[in-house]
Amino acid sequence: MLRRCAILTSATTLALLGCKSDIPQLNHNNAAGSTLSISRSFINTDGPVEGVAYACINAPTAWGGPTGAFVKGTLSSVSFTSTPGENSGRSTYMQDTLPRDGYSWYCHDEPERDYQLGDQGEITWQFAGQNDSALIFTIVSGSKENPGLTRFAAQQVNAAGTNAPFYWEPLNLSGAGPEIGDITAGPNAFNDGLAFYNDDDGHFYLRAADGTLTSAEPELLSSAPLIRNDRLVGLGFTENGLQAQVSTDGQAWQLSEVIDTGDGGLNLHENPVTGDYVASLGGNLYTSADALAWSNSTDTGLSFVQHYAVLPDGTQIAAGDGQVSSEVAEGNWSPVLAMPEGSTANVFQLQTAGNAVYLLREETVDGPPPTTHLYRSEDGQAWTELLPERQPGYNLALFAEGERILMLVKDGPYVSNDGGINWAPLSVLPEAFEDQIFEWYPVLAGQQDGLYFLSLSVRIGDSFGSSVELFLASEDLETFHLLAGKPNIEGDFGQRASASSAGIVTVGVDSQGTHMHKLVKAGESGSTPSATGSSGGGGGASTVGLWLFALILLGRRRPLR
Predict the structure, then answer these.
(1) CA 448, CA 446: separation in Å to the nearest integer?
(2) Structural domain count of the chain
(3) d(C-alpha 429, C-alpha 432), whole Å
(4) Where does the record place the DUF6242 domain (predicted)?
(5) CB-based contacts of 503: which residues, under 8 Å, 6+ apart?
(6) What angle do CA 473, 21, 436 make, to 5 degrees?
(7) Are residues 195 and 148 both part of a single domain?
(8) Which of 11, 203, 225, 460 has the fewest Cβ atoms nearer than 10 Å?
(9) pLDDT tens digits for 435-472?
(10) How would you classify residue 436: left for phi > 0, otherwise alpha for psi between -120 and 50, otherwise beta?
(11) Residues 89 and 129 in one domain
């Protein structure tokens, strides 16, 4: 099996890395008047197999086509370089399959060779130096019989002289970070820096204003941790019962009073209206202003509170195990959106946007197959189903700016200009790209300091399509810009993005160390997107150069034969 692998690019080198999450990335290197090179890589993780059969690139017709193409790599530790042959027939086929105004397809057949386990290579297309931007598509496939979109990738090339509206600014780091990362909270603002929680080792990690990274070890395992600007809070069981632990500096820890002596599923939430911490144990809720002194329990009527939301008027809504409950008066809750007897449900998301709350739930009535349903309520009691004729899927992203609300579901983005009453489809990507999307999967939505950030995965084509992870930014929910994906890291360990008063920040951990980046509007920072900092066991920084505005790409793990 040949899998596309993570690549890090600098001005002079291209390093092939591991394949745990099978994330390929296009890379480009360009300077004014020089050769523009666009590369893709592959590595054989399960051999022996035949090599890449063909590769195609879709670039502006005005560029005149590649001035050269070559494949290089290793065969049983022996290096090779070859020039693949052009295939005009395949180029014509791709032009008919995926036409784009002003763009042309250029395809090459790879010389036949057998790859053994661990053999790797990359294919590079070269163009004369360009000074304009372009959305580049590429396909690399190992199946001579299937010239479909088996390995689709996209890259926004911002060539020399082009000003990008947004970019990921690397944050300098020094000191020891986690060896492996499953980031479950943050990175959020903490004191004058940032903090995130790594579930793999049970530590908070703190980045000071000067970039120094230190770890904070709580006294007990922090289930459902929360990070606020003035404190770190975790929730867990001690020999006395359920307690919270709190630190205001990441060094000293204080245990709260015992919240409850029972057991059950626990969670930690925030009430955005009151600013209180909200702990849940089973179906009971407990509130606290400082996470140290807690109120008596309030019974929601649920067996487990997995999701929690609050309307602008303070009305609380909770959901878990497919059931939903709403607060009708202080301390008094009642079930809503009840399912018919004998049916089952699973709540995927509960989120407030504007003056309403939205709930996404899978429902099974009268046996399989299950269907997904999206509901909206302004009071927690009366609910209206949105898009009842469609399947909204299993993920939901919502933005609100006054009466304008953007919603992303399985079949694409929708916009409402009346607070969520009426909805219409919305285009957020270039038409030539959007027309090829079969399904949309929102991953993360955040807004901070006048910026809206959306991370999503889209499936190109139907049964044979590849998944592509995209990052978008907007200032007005009208115009969206394709962003660079976070500079790719080995194995994609623990990559996470979060929005807080520190801005929209990403964190990722790989064998090279810890990497953090901040979403920046062009002209608002003195830094440039030409280098990134990392922190490893020894604490040294490593430089990763001209990645600019690449899109991180997620490809299915398919054999290339």
Answers:
(1) 7
(2) 2
(3) 8
(4) 228-434
(5) 448, 449, 451, 518, 519, 520
(6) 50
(7) no
(8) 11
(9) 767 778 777 677 787 788 877 777 765 544 556 667 78
(10) alpha
(11) yes
